[in-house]
Amino acid sequence: MSNSRIWTAALVVIGDEILSGRTQDKNIAQIATWLGVQGIRLKEVRVVADDMDAIAEAVNTLRARNDYLFTTGGIGPTHDDITVDAVSRALGVDVVIHPEAHAILEDYYKDKGGLNEGRLRMARVPDGAELIPNRYSGAPGIRFDNVYLMAGVPQITAGMLDALTGQLEGGAPLLSETVGAWVAESEIAGLLHEIERAHEGSQIGSYPFFREGRVGANFVVRSISEDTLKSCIDSLCEGLGEMGCDFTPGGI
Amino acid sequence: MSNSRIWTAALVVIGDEILSGRTQDKNIAQIATWLGVQGIRLKEVRVVADDMDAIAEAVNTLRARNDYLFTTGGIGPTHDDITVDAVSRALGVDVVIHPEAHAILEDYYKDKGGLNEGRLRMARVPDGAELIPNRYSGAPGIRFDNVYLMAGVPQITAGMLDALTGQLEGGAPLLSETVGAWVAESEIAGLLHEIERAHEGSQIGSYPFFREGRVGANFVVRSISEDTLKSCIDSLCEGLGEMGCDFTPGGI
Question: Per CATH, is A7-164 categorized as 3.40.980.10?
Answer without folding.
Answer: yes
